[in-house]
Design goal:
It is a single chain. It is built from five helices and no strands. The chain has one domain: lambda repressor-like DNA-binding domains (434 Repressor (Amino-terminal Domain)), CATH 1.10.260.40. The longest helix is centred in the first third of the chain and has 18 residues. The chain is mostly helical.
Length: 89
């Protein structure tokens, strides 16, 4: 992935939205970064850097996120997609 194509700030905001919404869907409304990172197989530090928009997620991370949350990666990565979190079904 290249930062020429992805707005890391927007991506971080959407990752936070996915984490919160996913947490609510599994009855863990205050799902923190550390636990979410563990579910996705990355360190808490790495995940936090993604959510803060400081680092580009790896393809492996995005695949794990998609598999766990069923999120549309189009929505996650494309700023022209509507702002609501919509899991892909």
């Amino acid at each position: 992935m290249s930062t020429d194509f992805v707005d890391l700030t927007m991506l971080g905001e959407r990752l936070a939205r996915v984490r919160r919404t996913y947490g609510e869907s599994i009855d863990v409304p205050n799902l923190g970064r550390t636990n979410f990172a563990t579910l996705l197989g990355v360190s808490a530090t790495t995940y936090a850097s993604y959510e803060r928009g400081e680092r580009e997620p790896t393809v492996d991370f995005l695949v794990a996120l998609r598999n766990k949350t069923r999120i549309s990666l189009d929505w996650l990565l494309d700023p022209s997609q509507p702002g609501a979190y919509r899991p892909f079904r």
